[in-house]
Amino acid sequence: MLWLTAAAILVLGVLAAVWLGQDRLIFFPQPVVSTAHLPSRAQPLSIAGADGTRLAGWILPAGTGRAPAVVYFGGNAEEVSWTLADGRWPAGYALVALNYRGYGTSEGKPSAPDLLADGLAIFDAVAARDDVDGRQIVVFGRSLGTAVATHVAANRPAARVILVSPYDSLAAVGGRHYPFLPVSLLLRHRFAPADEAPRCSAPLLAIVAASDSIIPPAHSRALFDAWAGPKEWVVVPRAEHNTLGATREFWDAVRRGLSR
């Protein structure tokens, strides 16, 4: 019986470690190392989150009066200034991205409820700007951020949604990677965009890497199939999770999506 007791203690220890340490498995906050890579037109932007927490990022104005806007929600290890600085974004849109709580110079600590609520606060603040056409806001999410983008689309009048490497739920993806753990029971950060997709009527463009081993395409497809509005599915051959955004096919799809 001693070995059985030891085994039980070991299992409970592993489960406790996963429960307590899952923040470090899900969120990888990145600092702002430099802003020299940002275009000269980039303007610092600070928005109060749902509970008043200060979120910091940037807006790149379109420079054409009241313009449509792209509101970007990044991945779990992303400092968003680098995405804003990419020169392949099509012209004519204001680009907005704020770092998640605890990322960059944003205050606070990330959690699923806070990030989802912050997404709504960010959308509302951008829609209220004089230089943005609030009826023409495209919500853009990548990887972890596709859950935030989907939550916004389910609760706000987004004109279009672009999801890169989306997933059905964090529990489902985690269960695939850790089949020996009861992920659905241990998970405290309940990102489940497929549950909200049936309430999303905005047109969707989903861009997926064919060789994605982090979020396999089957998880992306489950969210796509649950989406209520018009939708387009684009698979980039030979691309992986972390190389998808560097491909010509990816940016061609983004430009097509925004041109509509």
* Outline: globular
Strand/helix succession:
HEEEHEHEHEHHHEHEH
In CATH terms, the superfamily is Alpha/Beta hydrolase fold, catalytic domain
The poorly predicted ranges are 2-17
Major beta-sheet overview: 8 strands, mixed
- Structural class by helix and strand composition: alpha/beta
Give the strand content. Answer: 15-25%
Total helical elements: 9
The first-to-last residue Cα distance is: 67 Å
Architecture, according to CATH? Answer: 3-Layer(aba) Sandwich
Based on DSSP secondary structure assignment, what is the total number of beta strands? 8
Strand order of the largest sheet: 1-2-4-3-5-6-7-8
Taking all Cα atoms into account, the compactness measure Rg is: 19 Å
According to CATH, what is the class?
Alpha Beta
CATH domain topology: Rossmann fold
Average the pLDDT over all residues and give the rounded result: 90
Number of domains: 1
Roughly how much helix do the residues carry, as a percent range? 25-40%
This entry's quaternary arrangement is: single chain
List keywords for this structure.
single chain, 260 residues, alpha/beta, Rossmann fold, 8-stranded mixed beta sheet, 9 helices, disordered N terminus
Descriptive account of the structure:
Helix content is 36%, strand content 20%. With 260 residues, it is α/β, with parallel strands linked by helices. It has one domain (37-259): Alpha/Beta hydrolase fold, catalytic domain (Rossmann fold), CATH 3.40.50. An 8-stranded mixed sheet has the order 1-2-4-3-5-6-7-8, sandwiched between helices. A hairpin with a 5-residue loop joins strand 1 (43-48) and strand 2. The longest helix is centred in the first third of the chain and has 25 residues, at 2-26.
